[in-house]
Amino acid sequence: MKKSIYILGIILLSLFGILHFTSASTHKGSRWEKGGDKNNKNSESQVRTDGVYFKNGIMKAGSHSGSNYTYLRFYDDGTVVVDQSASKPEQVARIISKKKNEGKGTYKVRNDEISFGMRQVTDYQAYEGKIMSDTLRLTITSSNTGFTLEDNFYFVPLEFKEQ
């Protein structure tokens, strides 16, 4: 009996993990489904610089509500830029850059791990996590509050006018 319950528990946990990963990693009906451009020259343990990583959140501020995206753009020189916008990934290529965005940092990659920090006006946020093909699994920690959030950022390839 105990063995049957144990096996059932393992099956349920495995199923939950597969369902959670599948539902969180795709955006069906869009050209920016998980996976992106498989012909990218970077290996799976390198961060991609030919587009942006994004996560979708819900914005509720007063009478305004809707989707709010957080974008991470990585550069070959080690710079990372963060931007929050209601713009879809296809539109953000025009607005995210080292020159225009204040949220900048320097990233480091070691094997399949990535880390960087962002200094905001009144806060510093530390980002640490894993590179998993075209997904970044990041833990974000605020130095002000100590609040920690774990989230996935999904890659979408984009063409930028300026690098």
Task: Summarize the structure in words.
It is a single chain. With 163 residues, the chain is an alpha+beta fold. The chain has helices at 2-25, 89-92; strands at residues 51-61, 64-74, 79-85, 104-106, 108-110, 113-119, 124-132, 135-142, 148-157. The protein has a domain at 45-157: Lipocalin. Strands 4-3-2-1-9-8-7-6-5 form a nine-stranded antiparallel sheet, with no helix packed on it.
Short account of what is shown:
With 163 residues, the chain is an alpha+beta fold.
Keywords, please?
163 residues; alpha+beta; Lipocalin; 2 helices; 42% strand; globular
Task: Map the helices and strands.
Elements: H1 2-25, E1 51-61, E2 64-74, E3 79-85, H2 89-92, E4 104-106, E5 108-110, E6 113-119, E7 124-132, E8 135-142, E9 148-157
Record field, number of beta strands: 9
Mean pLDDT over the residues: 73
Instruction: Assign an overall shape.
Output: globular
CATH architecture of the domain at 45-157: Beta Barrel
CATH topology of the domain at 45-157: Lipocalin
Number of helices: 2
Query: Spans of 5+ residues with little confidence (pLDDT < 50)?
Result: 2-43
Radius of gyration: 18 Å
Widest sheet, order of strands = 4-3-2-1-9-8-7-6-5
What is the class of the domain at 45-157 in the CATH system? Mainly Beta
User: Strand share of the residues?
Assistant: 35-45%
How far apart, in Å, are the first and last alpha carbons? Answer: 62 Å
Compressed to H and E, one letter per element, the order equals HEEEHEEEEEE
Please state the structural category. alpha+beta
The percent range for helix content is 10-25%
Major pleated sheet: 9 strands, antiparallel
